[in-house]
Amino acid sequence: MAATGKGFANRLIAYAFTVGIVIALILGLISTWLPAGVVPVLTTVLILMGIVVGFFNITPTETKNYVLFVTALVIVTSLGGGVLGGVQLIGVYLESILQAILAFILPSVLIVGIKAVMNLARD
User: Fold this and answer.
1) How many helices (H) and strands (E) does the chain have?
2) At what angle are helices 91-122 and 38-56 packed, to 10 degrees?
3) How many domains does the chain have?
4) What is the C-alpha separation between 112 and 105, in angstroms, rounded?
5) pTM of structure
6) What is the pLDDT of residue 104?
7) What is the pLDDT of residues 59-72, one digit of tens each?
8) How far, CA to CA in Å, does 63 sit from each of 27, 41, 95, 113?
9) What distance in Å separates the CA atoms of residue 25 and residue 114, rounded to the nearest whole number?
10) Alpha carbon of 27 to those of 31, 36, 37, 100, 115: distances in Å?
């Protein structure tokens, strides 16, 4: 019975990660149309979701791969924002989408990385 509950929790957290990415995509697309005060609030929600994912979604066995892959994603996303931001007509939206994705995944990789370093220091 406990395994079923744990499987449900894992699926719930995986869905939370997917929902975070979808919200980041939507926020990136509509942020230019939203009032100035709404975007920081929604970005804060993305950051909080990223923290939750970092604390609860990644198991110690997944840490190494998660940090590696998400770090690569952070690098590509941050460099791509500047390049794609210069594209005519859609560049503003592309850059905004990448910034929103960064706001979501950066806190999670920071939390997972800090947890990994603490586990290494403990061993």
Assistant:
1) 4, 0
2) 30
3) 1
4) 11
5) 0.82
6) 93
7) 778 888 888 888 89
8) 28, 29, 28, 8
9) 27
10) 5, 13, 13, 7, 29
